[in-house]
Amino acid sequence: MRILLHICCAPDATTAYKRLSDDHEVVGYFYNPNIHPRQEYEKRKESLEKLSKAWKFEVIYPDYDPAPWFRSVKGLENLPEGSMRCRACMALRLLNTAKEAKKRNFDAFATSLTTSPHKDVKFINDIGLKIANHVGIKYIPSVFRKKDGFLESVRYSHELDLYRQNYCGCIFSLRNDIS
User: How much is the pLDDT for 166?
Assistant: First the structure.
């Protein structure tokens, strides 16, 4: 099966890619209009390029355009981390991934977001399945952090000297971390 894997960052991609690529052809998709500032986006992109080169897998990099993300979270800017703002952000990224997977004739899509212990896995998988039904493509539910998946991602990150960010990427979470 050919899977388009939404990748939020290189560290989370390690476990997700390894586990999916054991049985499937996996192509990465770095769609993250939520990442701010632009320099942070570039650091994360460079880290993923380093990983994909080391492990020899393809990644699709759409143009960086934060406008759709700002529209999707309009009115939610002051909500805390883990709120409806985060849900809207994840839904936007999964919807775009599903549409891209369908357009490029992939069999399914998945996301590396479930590697992180900070993300709501039930929401991610529920919205992934709803989006899959809406778009007409299969979604691969996952909990990549299980079976020490997160610790595995930390180990791979250290071995490969990958950039590990200290916030989700959203300007509003960054602002909250500083205040």
Answer: 82
